[in-house]
Amino acid sequence: MGIRFILMVNKQGQTRLAQYYEWLTLEERRALEGEIVRKCLARNEQQCSFVEHRNYKIVYRRYASLFFLVGVDNDENELAILEFIHLLVETMDRHFGNVCELDIMFHLEKAHFMLEEMVMNGSIVETSKANILSPIQLMDKAS
Amino acid sequence: MSGPSLMDSLFQRTLEDLIKGLRQQLIGEQAFISKALEEIRKEIKSTDLSTKSTALLKLCYLSNLHFHDMSFAAFHALEVLSSPRFSHKKIAYHAISLSFHDSTPVLLLITNHLRKDLTSTNEFEVSLSLQCLSRIANVDLARDLTPEVFTLLSSNKLYVRKRAVAVVLRVFEKYPDSVRVCFKRLVENLENYDPQILSAVVGVFSELACKDPRSYLPLAPEFYKILVDSKSNWISIKVLKIFAKLAPLEPRLANRVVEPICDLMRKTGAKSLLFECVRTVVTSFSEYESAVRLAVGKIREFMVDEDPNLKYLGLHALSIVASKHLWVVSENKEVVIKSLSDPDPNIKIESLRLVMAMVSEHNVAEISKVLVNYALKSDPLFCNEILGSILSTCSRNVYEIIVDFDWYVSLLGEMSRIPHCQMGEEIENQLVDIGLRVKDVRLELVRVARDLLIDPALLGNSFLHRVLSAAAWVSGEYVEFSRNPLELMEALLQPRTSLLPPSIMAIYIQSAFKVLVFCLHTCFVRGGSTAGVSASASYESFDDLSVENGAGSTVAHGQTCTSAPITNESIVNLLKLVELALSPLLGSHDVEVQERARNLLGFVDLIKLEALNSSGQEENDSEQKGVEATKIIRLVHDAFSKELGPVSLSAQGKVPVPDGLTLNENLGDLETICSDIELPSSNTFSFGYPFEEKDVSSFSNLQIKEDSGQSNESTSLLAEHRKRHGLYYLPSGKSEVISNDYPPANDPALQGDNNDTASDLVKLTAESLVPKRKPNHSKPRPVVVKLDEADEKPVAVKHPESRDDSLSGAVRDILFGSEDILPTSSRSNLPSSNRKGKEKQHMITQVESKENVVGDGNSSSRRRKDHSHGKERRHRKKNAEERNETDRKEKESSSNHPRRQKSRQRAEEPLKVPPQTSVIPDFLL
């Protein structure tokens, strides 16, 4: 299924957004996030952005105080996922204007909707910022 | 609306209030959250939908970030979903896609809501419901909503159509029969030039092709077109993934595609696409030499890049190549070796895997040497990673790649001395295992074991205890190879052994027992000492027992024990040492230790008299006793010198049941046997002898008798100990003494070999790694005892089972078309056309037998027909629906239970699956 989950975690290891594309119970989620955070946050800038975990890979990237972690199947293209993360950040940047951790915290559902525009069923469906954002803005107007 | 709910909504905290409160709370996060949850539980029961939806939104937040269960709100979410207001609906869909799953009880209540929204004129409502469906669809939802999704697949709103395409994947997965309805429309979307649609549909196909590539071969021309025309890297990557799966199935396709891929590789500036090209080539086009060369060039660029990401991926790609083209790895070995000291542990592990892939019997020594040096310098984690991979590589398939076992054994010793080494257990197993399997290496093994035992510093390292236990066992079992048993004895009984855990302590004592017996035996029974006469006298008395043994061991002992002559005096000292070291252990809390210490001390008591006598005076009256003691020594020594070989797991089954043995007989008989034996053994040993060579059953019965049968007891203890080592042993049929088997001529050869390796080390410190070196072994590879099945656990290359599920069956039906083309007979068989074979074997033969019936032309013309069909959508849709209808009817008529029906269909599927190989005529490309 390509992408299995997308996490945003801050430097303290607190989850700021969690989107799973397969059903996990709360306990499984808690355990998984704990393990991943422990594994990835300990790494430094000189180390690569890919971590093997259980039977899949985590591709992560850090923007300021926020880590973007994407769990993918083993044959997913790691570099493409890095580009995807960057696209996600740019999209949010455009929407919120210089996005920061607080924006995501206070607009969690909006961040979720953005992700839903980009990823469906674990595969990336949309990669154009304009295409991602226009429905979001229209929906905002509609409600 | 009643008062309280109005009040509620007026004073309700919004999500923003909640988040702010959470950040500023003073009562502790958990307390704050549980208070908030209480509020939410109250608010969510409100009849006001705004209040309800706000509560739901807050709940989503707490569930998503603070792991709070929101399943109690499932029904409330449905209530919010029915709100006419879009903003409520949005929240409801958000909550549902976050919290619903297959076992949510109210899941089926959502069907009508979804159907309503899927047919809504508001494209955002449609999009939300599609999104939701892609998250929560189960079999029933997928089945019930297939018609709606089918309609949306050709929606003229791109936004909706794109999402419908993405949903199809989940619908197919859950309800394979939907393939017959939707597949053609999905394929039509492949020909769409809008990048939005294309990226969605290619994504779907790349997932589908992952599961069952063969079914999608007929679509190769469309994919090819996309590959050549695509402007978007995302799409290209997905298409490459599809081709990576398809190409191995169809050589003509591979021929066709390899060139465009290489073009792409040369031209593209995007690293992600470049890497995908490289990976595609090395996984699926590995027989195209020039393509592989090109890819390897790119891999090298990746590996030497500063960016750790590229370096990692380069190494990763290299390890994919390694399985087929080992030369590539050797060509790049400098980079690989350098990466071993990279700051990133992931890169290090990746390069370690590569290094291990290069290992062969020619270079294993060199590579291991280099790696052990790295292990010395690296952090504990990676150090053990290295040691673990050396150990597992070297022991693969019963030490397949090891030629020089002397070297390997000393490497094991060296590895266990590395400060961070935590692989004690594995080293222990291998030391014992090698000792048992490879006779020629025992001399070296004992030397290594001695070096380990004699070092008091090692006893303090708890990770090493397992290694030491193996060393103790080895030096006890093969003590006749020891240069200096007395020194060994001191090592085994040194005061610091108190640091060992009891189980290993027990092994130490048992080994000390063996060493002691060996010393005594050498000194009194055969040595030229005062006991010589009595020894030879006693020889005669049980000549019949072990003439060969005695003779054999004499020769060997003469060879090995020259360095440390064992005199009476040293024996006396030895006995004193044993008493001194073990008496405190008589009070040990561990039964094993206590029991074994008692054994050994009991034995010493028996022997002491003679030892003292023979050293002091040589009177005649002591002769009688001397004979007695010698007999005891003789007896115990014989018990120890029986060689135990490895036994295959199934060996027990192969032993024929002897005549006259009835296993079901009353066990009470055993008692009489026992009492028979007990009596004589407590008196005199000459009587006790019979069980030495007689039936095993009497052996085991005597185990508990401490005084009587020292030999028996120790044998059983020994057996116990060996069991603990994870191997199963039975005494080999003929009792041969180990020393028999060691050709004395080997000794000088061994020395030479040692020198050789020494010079090797010097060379290796200068140069790094030289794979493909000529072996420098001066002697042939020794025999490694292997057992038939038990040992044959070769590292099997697992072929991923070609997953044939009902989904792919359905896809094949559509693509290879069985309904329209095949004559009427097949039409009547329609329901069976999606029947599926569980037994692949069956399926394959079926497919092959069908090959002749349906030819090339058929399927290709079928494909063209599809396309022409595609033009008139209405007509087609009708067609499809009709077909669906008939399907359903037939189902209903044949069985009331749809599930059962499905499984039955699956079972018969193979009958209809047409051939695949002949499907792609070249002209389509």
Automatic annotation (TrEMBL), chain A:
Gene3D superfamilies: 3.30.450.60. GO terms for cellular component: cytoplasm; endomembrane system. It is found in: Endomembrane system. GO terms for biological process: intracellular protein transport. Keywords: Membrane, Protein transport, Transport. Residues 3-142 form the AP complex mu/sigma subunit domain. InterPro entries: AP_complex_ssu, AP_mu_sigma_su, Longin-like_dom_sf. CDD domains: AP4_sigma. It comes from the Eukaryota. Belongs to the adaptor complexes small subunit family. This is AP complex subunit sigma. The lineage of its organism: Eukaryota, Viridiplantae, Streptophyta, Embryophyta, Tracheophyta.
UniProtKB/TrEMBL annotation, chain B:
SUPFAM superfamilies: ARM repeat. GO terms for cellular component: AP-3 adaptor complex; endosome membrane; Golgi apparatus. It comes from the Eukaryota. Residues 771-780, 861-878 have a biased composition (Basic residues). It is found in: Endomembrane system; Golgi apparatus. InterPro entries: AP3_complex_dsu, ARM-like, ARM-type_fold, Clathrin/coatomer_adapt-like_N. Residues 823-834 have a biased composition (Polar residues). Residues 29-605 form the Clathrin/coatomer adaptor adaptin-like N-terminal domain. Keywords: Golgi apparatus, Membrane, Protein transport, Repeat, Transport. Its main location: membrane. Residues 786-806, 879-894 have a biased composition (Basic and acidic residues). GO terms for biological process: Golgi to vacuole transport; protein targeting to vacuole. Residues 768-809, 821-925 are annotated as: Disordered. Adaptor protein complex 3 (AP-3) is a heterotetramer. Part of the AP-3 complex, an adaptor-related complex which seems to be clathrin-associated. The complex is associated with the Golgi region as well as more peripheral structures. It facilitates the budding of vesicles from the Golgi membrane and may be directly involved in trafficking to the vacuole. It also function in maintaining the identity of lytic vacuoles and in regulating the transition between storage and lytic vacuoles. Belongs to the adaptor complexes large subunit family. This is AP-3 complex subunit delta. It comes from Gossypium mustelinum (Cotton). The lineage of its organism: Eukaryota, Viridiplantae, Streptophyta, Embryophyta, Tracheophyta.
